[in-house]
Write a structure and sequence with these properties.
With 390 residues, the protein is of the alpha/beta class. It is 71% helix and 7% strand.
């Protein structure tokens, strides 16, 4: 995440110092006298802050008053204008380094002398239902926008990877492969085996009625290779790696470690996101192959034990039915689903705001969003492959 310092004019430079980070704009008030006599310069500085927020499309503004030593009621007016602008544009305002005297002064002048009498409106369950739908729609739209921006930044860094591969933190790559790949092999193999047993048992009861017991091998092999293995493996990875990425990066966000990385000149996208996404993308095809093999072993046990098929006959029929086209379709899905799961997990980590409760919320959201996108993309791939005859 790169930052850019901006000094629009000599007058403004006397009042503020703007720094644009990837996720927010930092405004340091360098003017020691925040009084009405300095209103003209401070108003110019305020306009520059608004222009910087509109140009950057940031949704977080940090204002630092560490250098302010003298102030009067103009400070409250200035802050109220900033708050109003942030509320109208959906921007999170973070005011830092206000002394206790300044906070008491602001609270005193910001408090209305006459409290408004709140007029309670009778809300029906229908109103609350419609309101909840509207809030959920706005949240989904905000998530879609954030994901598009996040994916765009990731794609830019991915293209930069081919020009400067050493800029990626490759030392983290083997660790992430071990966590996301090797650590997931037992559960993936177990789930694949159980899926093969379930599909084999259900298919055996139906095929036995028509004397087509040998085609149980076709059913198990094709259904696992094309649909069940990539789908179930991606869901498992979403629950393991996607949630872990969201929790790790979210904790760093709460501890302001991401800001520290940016200040030291590191880009969190290359330093944290790229190794994780590339690792999950690389290990997903191997995990799917493990699930395929385990599932076919489960189907073999059902075929031999229930339908009295021979091992050699079952394996020969599997060899005939399972073509490279079937395997390739599942492996293509696995690569895309793995990248999406890792991106969603990292994106939710960057969205964390507040404390530990926010980390838990976005970790859960990473799993739910990941599973939803997995099923959606799997359906899209199925339709596309069917249309192409693949």
């Amino acid at each position: 995440m790169s930052r850019q310092s901006q000094h629009p004019s000599s007058e403004t430079a006397l009042a503020i110092e703007l720094q644009r980070f990837t996720a927010y704009t930092y405004c340091r008030v360098t003017e020691g006298r925040f009084t009405l006599q300095r209103a003209e310069i401070l108003e110019i500085a305020l306009q520059e802050v608004f222009a910087a927020m509109e140009d950057s499309n940031h949704r977080r503004l940090i204002i630092d008053f560490a250098a302010t030593t003298e102030y009067d009621s103009y400070l409250v007016i200035w802050l109220q204008t900033v708050k109003r602008f942030c509320q109208e544009n959906g921007i999170l305002l973070d005011v830092q380094n206000l002394s206790e005297q300044m906070q008491d002064f602001i609270r005193l002048l910001d408090k209305p002398l006459v409290k408004k009498v709140a007029i309670e409106e009778k809300e029906t369950s229908w109103h609350r239902y419609v309101e909840s739908i509207g809030e959920a729609t706005l949240q989904v739209w905000a998530d879609v926008r954030f994901f598009v921006e996040f994916f765009g930044e990731f794609f830019i860094n991915l293209t930069y990877l081919f020009r400067a591969p050493r800029t990626i933190r490759w030392s983290e790559f083997p660790t992430q492969i071990t966590k996301a790949g090797v650590g997931a092999v037992p559960i993936v193999a177990l789930v694949g085996f159980l899926m093969g047993v379930i599909v084999g048992y259900q298919g055996a009861m139906q095929l036995a009625q028509f004397g087509a017991e040998i085609y149980l091998a076709d059913m198990v092999a094709i259904s696992l290779a094309r649909e069940l293995a990539p789908l179930m493996t991606a869901i498992i990875v979403a629950g393991r790696s996607g949630a872990a990425f969201a929790a790790e990066i979210g904790t760093m966000q709460v501890a302001e470690e991401l800001d520290a990385l940016t200040t030291m000149g590191f880009q969190p996208m290359r330093f944290l996101v790229m190794p994780r996404v590339l690792a999950v993308t690389c290990v997903m095809p191997f995990l799917v192959l493990f699930a395929d093999i385990a599932g076919m072993i489960g189907g073999l046990l059902i075929g031999v034990g229930t339908l009295q098929l021979s091992v050699s006959g079952y394996l020969n029929e599997t060899k005939v039915a399972l073509t490279l086209q079937h395997l390739a379709s599942g492996l293509i899905k696995s690569v895309v689903l793995g990248a999406v799961v890792a991106l969603i997990g990292c994106m939710r980590g960057f969205q964390v705001r507040g404390g530990a409760d926010s980390v838990g919320h976005f970790t859960t959201s990473a799993v739910v969003s990941g599973i939803f996108l997995i099923i959606l993309l799997d359906a899209i791939f199925t339709v596309i492959f069917q249309a192409l005859g693949f």
